[in-house]
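Structure (tokenized):
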């Protein structure tokens, strides 16, 4: 009672702005009456809501007069303050159908209500707004009893509900778009996900942009449009509707655009889950950063119950970005797949090439080996010892060439999965010991020790005999090649149902960083010490493939300078093998010849022919000293026999031994192979030329690498001359004679010749700088084909010629030699044909008179279909005649016209104008000669052009000014054009303006 007597209007004190507003208002003319007369229960409710930070209101009396606190003002929005003191029915007339029944239950039945996240379409800012509230109506008893009012606390859930809904859409996009297979799949999946959110996407559609054609096609949409659709399936960027929807603006500026007044323009549109048609739409670019053009456009009908604020716009932009990211991922995966397919196709082509070329080599080899073996078996004293030695060397190198070819063929067959193993139960210990013992003679001849320890196995091992022989012989051959002292140990034992073969040597070992690459194709350790550098580089790779066919594994353990151990593990028994490949009778293709080939080659490699032959010098005559450096004993012997008649000759098996001899006694000339173990010819040359005592010593490099590029490389590293195998004896003698003569003149005029050599070297470097940039494809195979195949072939031809010359006419052996030489010539031609793939010939003798009109007509024919598709026009006058290389000039026209067609979006107009230029009118350009008439050709187009600052840059190899996805190409077309023009002693220049076309001017000698 004491509290009741002291209540005054001060109950409004501390009520914030709303407390002041209630106290300052005249309530005497309202149903509530003056504030002083308000019942105590109302005053208590007012005190509760004014001191609370929770949005709250009180509805009082039969009219439910509206009273509220400061926090509730945000819910009222634009209705505040005019709704203070009004009946609730007037305050919330737009939602009274929802809240009225709840208020009636509370007032009449004295029962409270509770609603969680109830959707209420409030009109508080001039439009029906989507809102979600959690609230409870609690009845308030009056001072006299009964229910006199309602007090309510509110929680605004709108942002939470909207955020969860939008996040769900973004999560679904991220989840389901990841499985898209192509662009169309991305668009369809995107629209299906947007359909699941009709509140934010009353309607949506995606257009895919074709920038080249300047058109768009609808890729997907959410619903069928009622009546006539305002957005057609396809449209051009020039159409009127494009301007109405601001499509071009969005595409060019990469910014979204808002489209207003849809209902007035198009009538009823899809409305999603709402009863009201959207009156606004948002157009967004679907694009990746860094691209010049969007992938497409996303058109979204905006909810009529949301305002497009920054947060809402960001949500739609995230949707567009998700779609763009998925398209990028699809393109990335597709490009990766295409690259993988291309690599597989290259691999298949390479495998087929190896197989075919190996078969082609085997035919002439058979025709060589047959007559050679027949002659060797019929020697009856008709041949001199020198002739028999030559014949034996010819046969030995033919057999070596056959082994190389067979290795290539075996490997290509495994790659092509055409090898079918025949697994037979064998006594693996005895088989391994027998194969290993065939190497004993070669190993002991080289001063090494061979240890074979093969323990009997408890279970039979199923192996393909020929494959097991190839595995063991390759490992033994490899160990022998790189073991210079000590020995080789072969062991076989059983461990955990596996047969374990180990081939251990005390050789030079393998560097740690090379170990992971030892079983890769064509891999060879550079500058490794060994008996020879010769080989294909696929022996260990072949061994690995053969071991895998036995369901086994192979590993290597090695330390540089301490030897290597190769370990092969294959399962015992036959449970792991295909049943249809297990046979009862052993199948063999090679017989004993395979071991013979490996052993004979090993015996050959063990010959360290360090002859110190010095012919007696005739009194008063000074013979020049020549040092021959080659790891191949036959080649050393052959060169020595050629030169010893005229010079004092010494030999060395590698660069390291040669350098020791040079330091002891400087010769007049060095003739050196390039590819050798321990120290190759390049390193030897470097050491000679960078030593003050030997920098004037002339060096002739000998290599099987053919072609102009190889010669230039030899000259570039400092060689005085470069000789390509196979070569004739006359050519070798002439070059040796010339270098010795120069060397002797050098002693008398060293200062003059040094200056001349520097000038010559400078000119060579200037003229060949561009050629050195060429990257030869299939470099590994070029080494194999040119060095390891041509070298024994050259020996076959050389020794057979020597033998034939030494025989009398009419001798029956001449017929055999003719067959050998015919087969050798055929193989030489095959090798030359292979090497033509990696060389571009620009020799002067290939220049002929060419009618450029004929070239143009051929190129136009090649582009007929593209010209028709693009509605292109090619104008030209009568072009002059020039002297050049037809194939290269056709390539020049093809690249320049093809560029114009590619970089002109629609209706290209290409003009080709040619004219003769008298010598007096030729402009000055570096590279053009004075007093020479030229032909000028101009190729102009109306394409996208380029900025003039890039006029030189576009001729650089792999240089692109445009995105690869917008304009396909490799980036080497114009670089190739420049090279072709320079091959013809001309110049090419480019001029252009962005989006205004380009002109390429070509000036060639008339």
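Design, position by position:
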């Amino acid at each position: 009672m004491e509290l009741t007597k002291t209540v005054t209007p001060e109950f409004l004190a501390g009520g914030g702005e709303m407390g002041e507003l209630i106290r300052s208002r005249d309530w005497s003319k309202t149903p509530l009456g003056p504030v002083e007369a308000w019942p105590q229960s109302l005053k208590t409710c007012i005190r509760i809501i004014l001191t609370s930070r929770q949005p709250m209101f009180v509805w009082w009396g039969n009219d439910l007069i509206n009273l509220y606190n400061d926090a509730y003002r945000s819910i009222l929005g634009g209705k505040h303050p005019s709704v203070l003191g009004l009946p609730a029915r007037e305050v919330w007339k737009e939602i009274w159908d929802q809240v009225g029944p709840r208020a009636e239950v509370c007032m009449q039945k004295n029962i409270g209500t509770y609603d969680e996240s109830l959707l209420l379409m409030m009109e508080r800012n001039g439009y029906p707004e989507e809102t979600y509230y959690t609230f409870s109506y609690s009845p308030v008893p009056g001072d006299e009893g009964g229910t006199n009012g309602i007090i309510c606390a509110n929680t605004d859930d709108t942002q939470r509900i909207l955020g969860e809904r939008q996040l769900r859409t973004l999560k679904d996009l991220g989840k389901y778009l990841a499985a898209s297979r192509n662009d169309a799949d991305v668009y369809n999946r995107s629209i299906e996900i947007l359909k699941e959110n009709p509140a934010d996407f009353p309607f949506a559609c995606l257009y895919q942009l074709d920038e080249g054609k300047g058109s768009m096609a609808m890729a997907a949409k959410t619903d069928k449009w009622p009546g006539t659709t305002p957005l057609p399936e396809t449209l051009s960027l020039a159409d009127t509707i494009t301007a109405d929807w601001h499509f071009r603006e969005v595409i060019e500026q990469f910014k979204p655009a808002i489209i207003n007044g849809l209902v007035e323009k198009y009538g009823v549109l899809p409305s999603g889950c709402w009863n009201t048609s959207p009156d606004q739409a948002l157009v967004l670019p679907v694009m990746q950063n860094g691209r010049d053009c969007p992938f497409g456009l996303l058109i979204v009908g905006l909810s009529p119950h949301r305002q497009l604020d920054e947060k809402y716009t960001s949500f739609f932009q995230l949707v567009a970005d998700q779609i763009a990211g998925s398209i990028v991922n699809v393109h990335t995966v597709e490009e990766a797949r295409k690259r993988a397919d291309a690599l597989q196709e290259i691999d298949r082509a390479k495998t087929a090439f190896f197989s075919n070329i190996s078969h082609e080599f085997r035919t002439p080899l058979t025709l060589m080996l047959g007559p050679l073996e027949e002659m060797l078996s019929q020697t009856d004293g008709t041949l001199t010892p020198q002739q028999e030695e030559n014949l034996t060397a010819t046969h030995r190198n033919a057999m070596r060439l056959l082994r190389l070819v067979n290795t290539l063929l075996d490997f290509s067959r495994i790659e092509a999965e055409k090898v079918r193993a025949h697994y037979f139960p064998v006594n693996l210990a005895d088989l391994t010991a027998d194969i290993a013992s065939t190497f004993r003679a070669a190993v002991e001849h080289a001063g090494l020790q061979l240890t074979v320890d093969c323990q009997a196995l408890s279970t039979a091992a199923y192996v393909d005999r020929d494959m097991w022989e190839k595995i063991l012989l390759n490992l033994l051959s490899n160990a022998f090649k790189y073991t210079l002292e000590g020995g080789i140990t072969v062991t076989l034992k059983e461990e955990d149902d596996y047969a374990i073969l180990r081939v251990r040597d005390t050789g030079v070992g393998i560097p740690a960083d090379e170990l992971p690459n030892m079983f890769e194709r064509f891999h060879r350790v550079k500058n490794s010490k060994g008996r020879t550098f010769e080989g294909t580089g696929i022996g260990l790779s072949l061994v690995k493939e053969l071991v895998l066919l036995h369901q086994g594994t192979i590993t290597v353990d090695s330390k540089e300078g301490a030897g290597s151990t190769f370990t092969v593990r294959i399962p015992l028994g036959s449970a792991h093998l295909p049943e249809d490949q297990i046979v009862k009778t052993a199948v063999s293709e090679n017989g004993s010849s395979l071991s013979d080939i490996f052993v004979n080659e090993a015996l050959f490699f063990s010959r360290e022919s360090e002859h110190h032959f010095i012919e007696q010098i005739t009194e008063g005559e000074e013979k020049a000293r020549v040092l021959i450096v080659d790891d191949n004993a036959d080649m050393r012997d052959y060169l020595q026999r050629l030169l010893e008649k005229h010079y004092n000759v010494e030999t060395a098996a590698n660069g390291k031994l040669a350098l020791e001899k040079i330091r002891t006694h400087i010769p007049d000339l060095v003739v050196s192979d390039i590819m050798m173990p321990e120290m190759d010819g390049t390193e030897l040359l470097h050491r000679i030329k960078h030593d003050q005592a030997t920098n004037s010593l002339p060096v002739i490099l000998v290599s099987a690498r053919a072609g102009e590029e190889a010669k230039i490389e030899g000259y570039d590293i400092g060689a005085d001359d470069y000789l390509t195998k196979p070569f004739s004896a006359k050519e070798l003698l002439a070059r040796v004679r010339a270098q010795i003569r120069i060397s002797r003149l050098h002693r008398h005029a060293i200062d003059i010749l040094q200056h001349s050599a520097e000038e010559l070297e400078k000119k060579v470097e200037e003229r060949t700088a561009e050629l050195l940039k060429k990257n030869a494809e299939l470099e590994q195979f070029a080494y194999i084909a040119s060095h390891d195949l041509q070298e024994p072939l050259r020996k076959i031809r050389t020794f057979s010629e020597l033998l034939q010359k030494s025989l009398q006419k009419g001798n029956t052996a001449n017929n055999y030699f003719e067959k050998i030489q015919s087969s050798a010539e055929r193989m030489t031609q095959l090798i030359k044909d292979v090497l033509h793939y990696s060389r571009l010939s620009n020799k002067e003798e290939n220049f002929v008179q060419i009618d450029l009109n004929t070239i143009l007509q051929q190129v136009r024919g090649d582009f007929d279909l593209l010209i028709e598709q693009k509605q292109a026009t090619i104008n030209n006058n009568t072009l002059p005649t020039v002297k050049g290389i037809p194939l290269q000039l056709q390539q020049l026209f093809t690249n320049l016209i093809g560029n114009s067609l590619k970089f002109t979006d629609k209706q290209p107009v290409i003009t080709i104008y040619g004219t003769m230029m008298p010598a007096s009118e030729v402009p000055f350009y570096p590279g053009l000669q004075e007093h020479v008439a030229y032909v000028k050709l101009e190729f102009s187009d109306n394409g996208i052009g380029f900025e003039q600052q890039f006029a030189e840059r576009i001729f650089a190899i792999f240089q692109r000014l445009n995105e690869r996805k917008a304009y396909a190409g490799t980036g080497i077309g114009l670089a190739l054009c420049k090279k072709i023009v320079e091959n013809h002693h001309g110049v090419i220049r480019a001029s252009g303006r962005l989006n205004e076309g380009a002109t390429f001017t070509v000036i060639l000698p008339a």
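Reviewer-requested clarification: Confidence is low (pLDDT under 50) at residues 1-8, 608-621, 771-779, 833-844. The longest strand covers residues 128-141.
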